[in-house]
């Protein structure tokens, strides 16, 4: 019978290697984040709803240039107290930017934006001439 040496810490070291590998890959993707969004519409307006939890209102920029609406935001990296290490970081941080070409028939002069509970809502009303309307038929 042969004896096999047993290292009780081998699995712990393997876990630490995988943990470190995951952190290295994670650190590379922290430069930007993707914010999920919805675009909804009805007869009166089109609305863009963007999830931006943890983003300060002052860190959000909305620009309109010709027919292109651009939304940009920055979520700051977490500040850790001295002698504190991040062991797991799944909340993304960094820059976010999306651009949309607005379709015809919207009134870009009346765009409104509201930020509440981590959700940015941009409402773009339809232009009066673009709204559906009934045409009366007259008889002569």
From TrEMBL:
Pfam families: HSP20
Entry-linked PROSITE patterns: SHSP
Stretches assigned to the SHSP domain: 28-140
Gene3D superfamilies: 2.60.40.790
Similarity remark: Belongs to the small heat shock protein (HSP20) family.
Name listed for the protein in its UniProt record: Putative HSP20 family protein
Organism: Magnetofaba australis IT-1
């Amino acid at each position: 019978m042969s004896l096999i040496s047993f290292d009780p810490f081998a699995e712990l070291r393997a876990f630490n290697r995988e943990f470190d590998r995951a952190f290295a890959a994670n650190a590379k993707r922290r430069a930007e984040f993707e914010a999920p969004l919805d675009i909804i519409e009805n007869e009166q307006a089109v609305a863009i709803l963007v999830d931006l939890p943890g983003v300060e209102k002052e860190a959000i920029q909305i620009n309109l240039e010709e027919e292109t609406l651009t939304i940009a935001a920055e979520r700051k990296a977490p500040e850790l107290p001295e002698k504190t290490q991040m062991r797991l970081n799944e909340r993304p941080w960094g820059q976010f930017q999306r651009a949309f070409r607005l379709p015809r028939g919207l009134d870009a002069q009346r765009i409104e934006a509201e930020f509440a509970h981590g959700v940015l809502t941009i409402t773009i009303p339809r232009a009066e001439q673009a709204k559906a309307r009934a045409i009366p038929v007259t008889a002569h």
